[in-house]
């Protein structure tokens, strides 16, 4: 089973990393239970 | 690049507003420029989630006009997760991406017939291609 290493909520940093890596950004809006 | 945003954290309120986010879970697939290629909401069990994630990637590739990459990505959904909710949509778009490259009618109509009309006859994506099917006789 694949796992996802979620990052903290720094969307701008994630977009910059995605730009450099030539990939996409996956955003998970969640509410802790 | 996977990012989690806690919608109950006041510091994230600007992001919640920017994405018009109203319910969780809520997943978005963005380009580095912030363009939203895909979105889905609600709880998806692990296999369904993985298939939906791969579908989101395929949708982004297709909308970037990377037709061969998108076709292969849709094919991966169909090969690995043929029984998921994402599969019929992958079948629909896999054929579209192939046809956009080859312009051969069988790559569109024939592939829809061999997948959606036979394997996923009750899916909404079968309906989406139903114009290509012969009319029912009375």
Give your account of this protein's structure:
- The complex is a heterodimer of chains A (about 35) and B (about 140).
- Chain A is α+β, with helices and mostly antiparallel strands.
- Chain A is about 35% helix and about 20% strand.
- The longest helix of chain A is centred in the middle third of the chain and has 11 residues.
- Chain B has a two-stranded antiparallel sheet.
- In chain B, strand 2 and strand 3 form a beta hairpin.
- In chain B, helix 2 runs antiparallel to helix 3 and helix 2 packs parallel to helix 4.
- Helix content of chain B is about 50%, strand content about 10%.
- With about 140 residues, chain B is mainly alpha-helical.
- The model of chain B has no long low-confidence stretch (mean pLDDT about 95).
- Chain B is elongated, with a radius of gyration of 17 Å.
Mean pLDDT of chain A: 88
Q: Spans of chain A with pLDDT under 50 lasting ≥5 residues?
A: none
Strand order, biggest sheet of chain B?
2-3
**Roughly how much helix do the residues of chain A carry, as a percent range?**
25-40%
Amount of beta strand of chain A: 15-25%
Annotation, overall tally of beta strands of chain B: 3
Largest sheet of chain B: 2 strands, antiparallel
Q: Largest interface, counted with CB-CB under 8 A?
A: A-B, 27 and 33 residues
Beta content of chain B: 5-15%
